[in-house]
Predict the structure.
Amino acid sequence: ASAKWVSRFKERNGINVRVMHGEAGSTDKVMVSIAHAVLPTLLKDTRLRNIYNCDETGVFFRAFNKRSLCTAIRKGLKDAKQRITAMLCCNADESHMLYPTIIGNAKQPRCLKRFNPETVKVLYRWNKNAW
């Protein structure tokens, strides 16, 4: 098969290169349906301002893009492992948003030497074992 045929086949059938990310594939669908049925009755007397959602995400701040359009084969680079964790939290009616929290593994990172977290309302915490 020619490259043109493969290209047209992919186009006709909606085949694209995609990156699978996130945790949606590991969700237990049975538990989600149970939660959808039970949670409204559990929370019926609870005000929205008292329901909070909190989530964390990892940021690999020195990582390179895994893909690129190239005209020649290039050698890849070793993955950078330097990472910080960011945590965001607010209540359901958005009347109370907690300050974003950044967790790193250095007590006083060099890049934040002159940075005062209180001026931008960000909490910085550190842990030697931070992932």
